[in-house]
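Chapter review: from sequence to fold.
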Amino acid sequence: MQMVKPIQFQRSDWHCHRWGLILAAGDGTRLLPLTQRITGDDRPKQFCAIVGEETLLQQTRRRVSRLVPRWRTLLMLTKTHESFYADQVAALPSSSVLIQPSDQGTAPAILYSLMRLCEMDPKAVVAFFPSDHYFFG
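The token string follows.
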């Protein structure tokens, strides 16, 4: 069996090739009764303002922006949820928004996003951030 040689990064490379990927493609079925009560529709939780005025997606984007520049942050979304996120991504460059036809689960979303990111920056170092969590603090 041949061992794969790890990529060696210089300290400055980490900063130059740091990317964030926000996963926001889930259907949010577990909290659907709550989000239906809040919004009156079948909105997945990441597009809902459950705590505060911002949606969970907006809160996640704000948190990630402290670590990764917005222009190196990608969003993984699904076409089926477009009516819920269209206003939140309208000002973003299309290269920052990755759209699946429908929710296929976390692993395919990660694989697809890594393939796209590799085309954009072959030396990318990426962190994944779920958008359907709430953090206190």
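Two observations follow directly from the output. The radius of gyration is 16 Å. The CA atoms of residues 4 and 123 lie 16 Å apart.
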